[in-house]
Amino acid sequence: MRGLTCKETGLVTTNTATLPVLSPLMGFDEASAIVVDFLKEHIPLGYWAVTRYDGYRQLYLEVRDDVYGVGPGDSHAWDDSFCVHMLAGDGPQIAPDAMAVPAYRAAPVGKAIDIGAYVGIPIVHGSGEVFGTLCGLDPAAQPDELEENAALLALLSNLLTMILDVDLARSEEARKRERAEIAADTDVLTGLLNRRGWERAMSLEEDRFRRFGHPGSVIVIDLDRLKVINDTLGHQAGDDYIRRAGQTLTGCLSREDYIARLGGDEFAIMATDATPEESAAIVDRIYAEFAAAGVAGSIGCAPYTIVAGFPGAFDAADKAMYEEKRRRRASEG
């Protein structure tokens, strides 16, 4: 698209800016990269980003930053941000002098880093739910003419919202197809995914989580007493114990979560769209349901992060599980 006239403010360095070419056919991550590149060139604040509110953090999905040293996958608490105040109506979407706005001056993020100018434009689902923001920051206050970019910023945010909704719908359809495909990779004893199915699920979900910044966790479970049951009651009793554990775990999860038996007495869960608090509640529910079913095990949980990905989350959850097993053995001994 062409013909958007931008005034020469000292912020926009060209008299006529050609809007970036954005299409619903492209992914949200590609569109986000195009938009922040465009803004970094035409409204050259030190930091531009597309961010995601995932229920507890403000997560940076696409970043162009040469002042604060942050990158994709970094985050801070949502309640500490300027954006939470902007969305509440306590501060403007464009603040050339952010410290002149009481809500921004009091925000914890403004005490942690120097923020002289702030831009925060909501990115909203078609349902009206806030996905995140198109966010710009600079350590120095800017001329009041920064506000003259309001129409441009709103247009770019609306375009990102349109592409987001289309890409989310497309991604969900792909997820349904993928689930059907990996359903064949099942463990004979429990009917859950086997290790191959688990690894395929992690690989397929990795791109989706990186693109949208979805919250999620990996939970690793290692059953107790299986060897004792096999040695004293026989392997049929051991198989029944494993099946009962699998059925109990399935009952603790939503249909969108992935659950696998990785082999022997080890299970793994990918809790999709779950914050750390929600994942901790899942762990508590598993312990309670295990106790009711006569199953015992040690559980470790770790959140997904863009930096470490699902392999890193699995390793962290596995480590946490073994630490929990050692702690329980020490307390019982």
UniProtKB/TrEMBL annotation:
Residues 214-333 form the GGDEF domain. GO terms for molecular function: diguanylate cyclase activity. It holds the Pfam family GGDEF. PROSITE patterns: GGDEF (PS50887). This is Diguanylate cyclase/phosphodiesterase (GGDEF & EAL domains) with PAS/PAC sensor(S). The lineage of its organism: Bacteria, Bacillati, Actinomycetota, Nitriliruptoria, Euzebyales.
